[in-house]
Predict the structure.
Amino acid sequence: MQKRLVYTSLLAIVVTLAACNAGANTPEKTSETKPAKKEKTIANIHVPAFSADSAFQYVVRQCEFGPRVPNTDAHEQCASYLSQQLASFGAEVSQQKFTASAYDGTQLKATNIIGTFFPEKSKRIIFFSHWDSRHTCDQDAPQYHKTAVPAANDGASGVAVLLEIARILKGNQPNVGIDIVFLDVEDYGNANGDANSWCLGSQHWSKNPHYKTKPQFGILLDMVGGDSPSFGIDVISQQFAQNIASKVWNMAHSLGYKQFKDETSGQLIDDHVFVNLSAGIPTIDIIDYSSTRGFPSTWHTHLDTPENISKETLGMVGNVLTNVIFNE
């Protein structure tokens, strides 16, 4: 069911849709700093190693199902796979099933997938990524407009990083509890219509949260596997969770990752908007977007495939998050 969101004055200004902005997409080249391969200890705290190779294999596995568009076999099969993976890593897993009404009237069978680690811990962090694929390569040549996006970066990359973090949690217990939510139907929106047509999974979850103990803050991942990324801080993250953004970006800088930039990247409508406004959890978005470059060149095209995924970028983002978790 589609939920209507009444926007605050913050969103009354001109918005850039995270799933449908048609801005320039000329890739911006940045210097690459490779993530550490060995386990690190910061301030005498043991931080487990994040495996970029393992994360990349999770990208490949998701894409092997085909585009994960709601109402398809690939979507159903991938939902089972993601749930099984979280359970194998020790999470308490639940599926939040609902029917979403798309902008074109299509009734979409949707599933938010939730993994809860260390439910006994009262201090908690929540992580999000959408796992569905867009039903049209609308930023591609016309012959691809009826083709679904493979969604290696725009969907699978964030999920892959969180699956690798879940694998780490199986053998390493931090001081905080962790919730991982794979959100559905983020990418079935109307490119020329209402912002509320996007992020239907987060709209539903934010009105029907799963937790017993409210997380203290959240981090959303979206498009975290591209080459030469640019991770700025979007306006929504600044407005609702500036202290969380500072925590994460300072950690990235301490690890030498210049791709996390101290600049405003624009105002984006992404899943974190609904988590902030409806669920009231201060949540930031780590997303490859620059107000000057736009989204990565593979965005919403048939080229969003594992061949165009950077293990270095997956490792960078995963290493930052792992350090944030184990330094709490």
Observations:
- The first helix runs from residue 52 to 64.
- The chain has one domain: 9-326.
- The helical segments are 52-64, 73-88, 152-171, 200-207, 235-254, 271-279, 311-326.
- Residues 1-42 have pLDDT under 50 and may be disordered.
